[in-house]
Structure formats: structure tokens, C-alpha cells
Amino acid sequence: MTDDARTSAESATSGDLSGKVALVTGGTRGIGLATVRALAEAGATVVLTGRDEAKAKEAAASVQTGSVSGQALDVTDAKAVSTLVRGVAKEHGQLDIVVANAGILEDALLGMIREDLVERMMATNVGGTIHTVQAAARAMMRKKTGAIVVLASIVGEHGSAGQTAYAASKAAVGNVARSASKELGRYGIRVNGVAPGVIETAMTEHLGEEIIADRIEDTSLRRLGKPEEVAKAIRFLVSDEASFVTGQILGVDGGLVL
Fold first, then answer.
1. Candidate list 166, 167, 234, 249, residue with the active-site label
2. Listing from the earlier edge strand, what are the strands of the sheet with 146-151?
3. What is the spatial distance between Cα 156 and Cα 159, in angstroms, rounded to a whole number?
4. Does the keyword Oxidoreductase apply (predicted)?
5. Which of 39, 94, 38, 34 is nearest to 59 (CA)?
6. What is the pLDDT of residues 212-225, one digit of tens each?
7. Which domains can be identified in the chain, with CATH numbers?
8. Is residue 82 very low, low, confident or very high in pLDDT (cuts 50, 70, 90)?
9. C-alpha–C-alpha distance, residues 24 and 50, integer Å
10. Measured between alpha carbons, how far apart are the two ends of the chain, in Å?
11. Burial class (CB in 10 A: 0-12, 13-18, 19+), 157
């Protein structure tokens, strides 16, 4: 094979997820839906979840490439997560990729943080991620292979005024990935995270023009990120291209924290 032919062949298979089965929680919009599209385009069979079954099915139908289906799931319900993950693995005969994306964002200055806000944030962002990683690991251990990605945040790595509860929850999510990777590596299961900066999604629209302008000014690339850019990083981490990468939190922030 010539060098040109070899390069062409490698390019064609780079990041290929054909034959893989993937689950993406919180996949009805934003980064989650962009990730569903990216995985499906790479050849994976994808199951996405959302709290509302109708919205989950609608989101799945909006993906024009590959095999995508939608199911309802509340990630704060550990039993429901376990049941759904087992069901996906049984239906498709395997579960190769899990992206724990489901999460919520509620801002509040330190003196205004209510107890119920803390409980919701921790139950969804931290508890939901742990439930998802736990269930995924059980399904993947049988074949001793698999890739899991959790959605952390640059805020969780470096903090942010007015986001103490959110930052705490996302810091915990990052450490779920680090700790789980240490436990699951012996089973051939890789666990990583991505830490997005300010991304153009419904979750950041509430920040307002002035705050967004300040964040753009602080970002080396001088713009907001796009959900598709985070999705591409996730696709890399779950692919064989990242076969020796685990326990890492990859910043996708345009240089926000430099």
C-alpha cells in the first residue's frame, strides 16, 4: 500500500463508530443532541433520553443520519437508570458508549442559595451522573470494554461568581470520572470527561448580553463555543482514537481559563 493510500484508509476509519451502541442522557437539545448527531454520523446506533418521552422521541426523529431512538428517563431515579441501561444492552446485544450529559443549571449568589436548589443540583448533576456511570459499568463489564464520558464544566474546575452550587456539582462530576476510571480500567472501560466553557445553548441564554460579552472577552478565541464543537471532543474520547486515554477532563473552552 502506498503512503497516500494508507493515509486515505486511515482517514476513512478515523473515529469510526460503526457497530457500536451508544446511550446519551439528556440528549434532547444542546450539547446532548449535538452529541447524538455526531455519534450517529460516525456510525453508532444511538439511544437518547430526556425527562419527557414525547420530546425524546421528537429529538430522535430530528436526527437524519443513522439509527437513533428516544426514551424517557429521570436520571435522579437510580432504579430507572439501571432498568433502562439493562434494557438497551439487552435489546442491542451490547452497550459500548455512554455519555452522561443530563444536567441542570441554576445560578444564585452565595447568600441567595436555597436548600431546594442545592438538592436539585446535586441530585441531577451528581447523583444522576453516578447512577448513569454505575449502570453503564455493570453493562460493560461483561465484555470488558467500553467508553464513558461525563459532562463536567470549566466552572467546576475554576469556579464562578454566582454559581457556587453549580460549580460544586460539576467539580464532583469531574471527580466521578477520575475515580471511576481508576476502578474500571482493569475491565477495559475508559472514563473521561469534557469541561465546556461558555457554549451557545439554551442553558447559557439566561446570562444576558453583558455577561456573555465579558466571557467572550476572557476567551482566547473571542467567541462562544458551539455544541457541535463539544460533541466532536466527546466523539474523539469514545472512539478508538482515544484508546489509551482515561481519567482525563478535556477542556473545550476556547482558552477561557488560560
1. 166
2. 68-72, 45-50, 21-25, 97-100, 146-151, 189-196, 249-252
3. 6
4. yes
5. 34
6. 777 778 787 888 88
7. 18-196+228-251 (3.40.50.720)
8. very high
9. 9
10. 43
11. middle
User: For residue 11, what are the contacts with CB-CB under 8 A and spacing of at least 6?
Assistant: none
Average pLDDT over residues 145-151: 98
pLDDT digits (tens, 9 = 90+) for 149-191: 999 999 898 888 888 999 999 999 999 999 999 999 999 999 9
Please state, in angstroms and as integers, the Cα–Cα distance from residue 244 to each residue in 91, 147, 156, 236, following that order. Answer: 29, 11, 25, 12
Choose among 257, 76, 101, 247: nearest CA to 174.
247
Contact in structure between 164 and 258 (CB atoms under 8 Å): no
How many angstroms separate the CA atoms of 35 and 233, rounded? 9
Q: Is the pLDDT of residue 257 over 80?
A: no
Decide if 166 is catalytic: yes
CA 231 from chain centre, in angstroms, equals 8
* 63: its cell numbers: 436526527
**Which of 73, 86, 76 minimizes the C-alpha distance to 21?**
86
pTM of the model: 0.90
